[in-house]
Amino acid sequence: MGRKRKILLIATGGTIASTQTESGLKPLISPGQILGYIPNITEFCEVDTILLCNIDSTNMEPEHWSLIVSCIRKNYEKYDGFVIAHGTDTMAYTAAALSYMIQNSEKPIVLTGSQRPIQSEITDAKTNLFDSFLYAADEKSQGVQIIFDGKVIAGTRAKKMRSKSFNAFSSIDFPYLGAIQGNYIIRYLPQQPYGEEVRFYEKMEKKVHLMKLFPGIQGDGLEYYFDAYDCIIVESFGVGGIPESVSDAFYRLSKRYPDTIVVMATQVTHEGSDVSVYEVGQKIKADCGFLESYDMTLESVFAKMMWICSNFDFSSKKQTEDLFYKCINYDFMFEERVLK
Length: 340
Known about the structure:
This protein has helices at 31-35, 62-75, 91-101, 125-136, 222-228, 244-256, 279-288, 298-311, 317-324, 335-339, and strands at residues 5-13, 18-21, 24-27, 45-55, 81-85, 102-103, 108-112, 143-148, 151-154, 158-160, 169-171, 178-181, 184-187, 199-200, 208-212, 231-236, 261-266, 291-292. The chain is an alpha/beta fold. The chain has an eight-stranded mixed sheet with strand order 4-1-5-7-8-9-12-13, with helices on both faces. Strands 15-16-17-18 form a four-stranded parallel sheet, covered by helices on one side. Helix 4 (125-136) links the parallel strand 7 and strand 8. Helix 2 packs across helix 3 (91-101) and helix 6 (244-256) packs parallel to helix 7 (279-288). The longest helix is centred in the first third of the chain and has 14 residues, at 62-75. It is globular and about 65 Å long. The termini are far apart. The model has no long low-confidence stretch (mean pLDDT 90).
């Protein structure tokens, strides 16, 4: 039997670390106390802990993503893998962000949490944590994933689909990377070795705005978003389009602010966008040079554009487009079709 793998548990708070207070659940439990509930992990790994923050994940911000990346970068050579205990509400955003901020990692970076506190009599916390350490301690694991309810989900493909049930997360329009059953890892997709060295990006600035369309929306205030943000992600209806009530404003402002990037996404969870289908989308995309999310999750579109806008200063929209459509950690499946 080989040496035990060294894993760093990075605690950030969330339900898994919460305890009941007079005003509701609040993260108060230390990472050392959390480990006390799963003592049998010492059979296959050695664990150190660090309390990076102790917050409800509703309060997770890009600054916290940068802290996580900085922590992993500083400790990358010391450990074989990393487990991040995180609240479930924004876990998909964090997993997507880390997929862009830490690329080509031959070491696993696993996010997990729970729907009920680890102190509760009935909880999913112990299983999720144990599975995460089991996966992080396996030499075949790499990259950024969420492990939850026995499922291994690529960091760019996860979405929280249920607010209370233990099977909270799904992999959107992409297979699960694997499953964990009876303390065994079942891998559905073989992970190929990265051809490049690990890269860390710690900048994630708040220069991306998410705009949700709704019936009857007006263009009032739209100019503020074009002026204030590097990128506007339009969460449109169905396969994508701009309603007549705001189309004139989009045409006018796209010409006035040519450096503001607009990405057409969709409010629909599955099957993605296809702006070419309807006139309300096809013409304005061509005229205004919008990008399109296709099969990417909204969380990944948001994180990817924030990563691009924070770390690259391209001289042309074409360079931004090429990077946006480049597949990173399974986020985009139409690269060859779009970039041909």
